[in-house]
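Sharing a chain and its predicted structure for anyone who wants a worked example. Both blocks are below, sequence first, tokens second.
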Amino acid sequence: MSIISLPLIGLMLVVVGVTVLVVKAGGIALRLTGLDAERADFQALSAVTGTGFTTRESELVMADPRRRRIVGALMIFGNVVLVVFIGLLVGSFTSAKQNYEIPIYGATLLLGAYLVYRLLMLRGVTARWSRWIDERLGPRLKLQERHVSEVLTLAPGYGVAELLIDATAPCVGRTLAASGFRRAGLLVLAIRRADQVIPSPSADDRIVDGDRLVCYGELERMHEFIRRDPPGQSQAPEPPAEPPAAEPA
């Protein structure tokens, strides 16, 4: 084998090693955004290699700006690596002086790449690399303030909407627990009442005429809910709570 090709082989093995570490780091970063481990690792590998994406996987990435930035960076890195690797590969083959050196060179490169990959996948190396990445990316990715409507529109047909409650609504006069929202699969996130906002209302909060309920759930179900009485409920509102008996003098 030509001595000239040995440094090129070394550089290509370094590229392979760096690529393995970057793919691993990308998988860890995507996991920190909420993806499960298997899907995050596959997404990172797909982004670097430019293959394997499906429509569903792309939707998961597009739904989160953090994932878009991570996958975008991995795609750019993958293209750079591809250009560098092809350049080194062409240079190494052109440096071969004899035809028999080409298969030897190819076998050496494949064996070296395999050994580098196995070395970097050792439990101790992977654990230290994962811990290092987690320490640096964790504080940025584990918690990120986002608008509630962006977080709660992941399922088709679901979203956040504000329901205006008027005097004809069947839930007027009832508490949230008795209103039927939970049985209808709707989650009341807040109540807007005049200039007052009740965040995270409790089950005992009573709905009154003029309330605006910020709800999450199936949008079509919300339309149905305000047009009819909740399932299993009667039209009569809850009776007002009896005042406590006066204590004897």
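Comments welcome. The radius of gyration is 30 Å.
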